[in-house]
Amino acid sequence: MTGVWPGSRLRAAEAAAIDAACAAGDPDRYMRVAAQGIATLVLRHLGRGGAQVRRSAVPVIAAPLPQRSQVTALAGSGVAGARIVALVGPGNNGGDGLYALAALARRGAACTAILLAERHHGRGAQALRLAGGRVRMAGTAGAERALAAASVVLDAALGTGARTAGSARGRVMAWPQLPDAAWRIACDLPSGLDAEGEEPGAGGACAGTEVQPVESQPVEPPWVDTTVALGAPSLGLVLGRGRELCGEVHVVPVPGLLDPTLLGEPAVQLLSPNEALDSMLSPRAGDHKYSRGVLGLVAGSPAYPGAAILCAKAALETGVGMLSAFTRGTARLQFGAAVPEAVVSSRDQAPDGPAASRVNAWVLGPGLGESEQDLDAARRVLASGTPAVVDASALAVVQLPALAPVPVESPAPSRPWILTPHAGELRALSERLGLDLPDPARWPLASVKQAARALRCVVLLKGSCTLVATPQGQVFAAASAGPGLAVAGSGDTLAGILGAVLTTHVTRSGAATPQELARWAAAAAVVHGLAGAAAPGPAEGLSAGIRSVLQTR
Ligand SMILES: NC(=O)C1=CN([C@@H]2O[C@H](COP(=O)(O)OP(=O)(O)OC[C@H]3O[C@@H](n4cnc5c(N)ncnc54)[C@H](OP(=O)(O)O)[C@@H]3O)[C@@H](O)[C@H]2O)[C@@H](O)CC1
Ligand SMILES: Nc1ncnc2c1ncn2[C@@H]1O[C@H](COP(=O)(O)OP(=O)(O)O)[C@@H](O)[C@H]1O
C-alpha cells in the first residue's frame, strides 16, 4: 500500500532532511533525486515515440517509477533534438525543474527554462546552462517561441510551497498557458493545486482547491499527463480536483527524505491493483459451493429490476459458491430469467426462511425500492448480525448505535457492515441521523471518517477516489478508476463485487475486524475500477470486465 499524507505533514518531515543535507554541504541532494525521477519519465515518454497519452485513459495513482535499466535502454531513442520546456517558479519546485532540464540536456534534448519570476534557483540554472540548455524570462520572444515549439512541457512553477493569497508574501509571477499539444509533466503537483487536501478550516486550505497568486489573475491549475511526487504522494493529488488534473502519479522513492517518526501515520492508504487482486479468493481444490460462500441478495423491485441483476452478475463473476436472491413481484421472474444460477425466493424469506439459512453475507439495497415491505427485509437482515454490504435505499434503515463512539482498540465490530453511499447518500444519511458531517462532496475524507466513527461500522464513500474508513479512523483508498465508471448501474456492480469478496472471506476466515472489512472493500473498489477500464461502456459490460481482470491473476 502507498501512504498518502497532507502536504503540510510531508513538508514538515522533508524540512528536517533538507536541513541535514544543507549542514552536510550538499543542499541540493534531494532536488537532484527529484530531477532524476522527472527526467526518467520524460525519457520513457520520448522513448515510446512521444505518443500522446489520451486524457480519457485511466489515471493510475502511485504507479511505480520505471526501472532505470528500462529507461537506459530507451534513452537513445527520441531524446536528441526533442524540444523540452520547463516553467520555472521562484522556489525549490523551480529548482527541481532546472535540474531535470539539465539532466535531459545532457542526453541531447533542446531544453529551455522559462523563469516566471526574477528570483530562481541559481545553482539549478547554472547546471542547465553548463549542460547546454537556455534560460529565458517569461514574456520574452525567446520564451514564447520555445513554448510554442515544445513537445514536452514541465510544470515546475509551484509545488507544496504554493500559498493562498492571504499568506503569500506578495510575489507576482507570470502564468503562461501550457500548450495543449505538448505532453505535460508536473513536479510534485500541478502548479496552484493545494497539496493539503485535509480537514475543513485547516489554514484555509481545502481538498484540491487552487491558490490565488497575489496581485495577479487567479491560477487555474493545469491538467497534466503525469505528476512526479517526491517521497510520497500528498492528499491533494488524490482528493478533489487532484484526480482530474494530475494524470498518472509516480512516486520517486527518496530514502532518508521522509523520517517516519516525523511523518506519522498516513491519512490514507492506497491499494495497488496487485494488492487488490491478491484479496480476491480463488476456489481451493477441495471446495464445494457452500465452503466457497453463499451470498444473500436483498435487492430488486418491480420499479428497479435491473440493479439486482447487475449486482448479481458482478458477484457471480467475482466468484461466490452460490447466490440466493430475495426479491419480489415481477422482479422475481425477471431476475430468475436473467440470472439462472441464482436461487430466487420471496423477500419475506430474508433472513429467517429456509432459503436464507446458509447465507454467509448479504448485499442489501440495489434496486430495493422504498416501500416499508422492502425496507423491513433490510432491517431484519441488519438485526441478524450477519456481515452485510448496505447500499442504495437500504441505507435508509441504518440507525445510530446505542452506545457511545467505539474505543480505538475495539475488537471485531458488533455491526459487521460496509455502508456504500455516494456523496449525496452520505449527506442524506447525515441529515436523517443528525450526524452534522462536513459536506461529503467537498470534504470526502473528513466526512467518511466521521461517519464511520459515529455509525461504528465501515463506510465506503464512492467517488472518483473511493475512500473506505473504519470506526477507528483508518482509511483505505481506491484511486485507479476512470470516469467511465460514472454511469448508472456502476454502483450496483460495485456492491456485487464487494458482496462476493465479503462472502468468500468471512466463509473462509470467520469474523472479520473492521480493518479487514475496510481493506476488502477498498480491494473491491480497485477491481471495479480495473473492470471499468477493461470494459468501457454501459454498466452491463462491467461483468465481462471483471472476468477479464480476474483472469490476469
Ligand atoms: N528544498 C528542497 O531541497 C527540496 C524541495 N523539493 C521541491 O520543492 C517544492 C517546495 O519548495 P518551496 O518550499 O520552495 O516551494 P515552491 O512550491 O517552489 O514555491 C515557493 C515559491 O513560490 C512563491 N509562491 C507561493 N505561492 C505563490 C502564489 N500564490 N503566487 C505567486 N508566488 C507564490 C513563494 O513566494 P513567497 O512565499 O516568497 O511569497 C516562493 O517563492 C516541493 O514541491 C518539491 O517539488 C524537492 O525537490 C525536494 C528537495
Ligand atoms: N469520475 C469517476 N471516476 C472514477 N469512478 C467513478 C467516477 N464517477 C463515478 N465513479 C464510480 O462509479 C460508481 C457509481 O456508483 P453510484 O453513484 O452508486 O451509481 P449507480 O447507483 O447508478 O449504480 C461508484 O463506484 C463510483 O466510485
From TrEMBL:
GO biological process assignments: metabolite repair; nicotinamide nucleotide metabolic process
UniProt domain YjeF C-terminal: residue ranges: 272-553
Positions of the YjeF N-terminal domain: 10-262
Record's cofactor remark: Binds 1 potassium ion per subunit.
CDD domains to which the protein is assigned, alphabetical: YXKO-related (cd01171)
PROSITE patterns from the UniProt entry: YJEF_C_2, YJEF_C_3, YJEF_N
GO MF terms, alphabetically ordered: ADP-dependent NAD(P)H-hydrate dehydratase activity; ATP binding; metal ion binding; NAD(P)HX epimerase activity
Binding site for AMP: 462-466, 491
Cofactor: K(+); Mg(2+)
PANTHER family membership: ATP-DEPENDENT (S)-NAD(P)H-HYDRATE DEHYDRATASE, ATP-DEPENDENT (S)-NAD(P)H-HYDRATE DEHYDRATASE FAMILY MEMBER
Family to which the UniProt record says this protein belongs: Belongs to the NnrD/CARKD family.
Protein name: ADP-dependent (S)-NAD(P)H-hydrate dehydratase
Species whose genome carries this gene: Galactobacter caseinivorans
Name of the gene encoding the protein in the UniProt record: nnrD
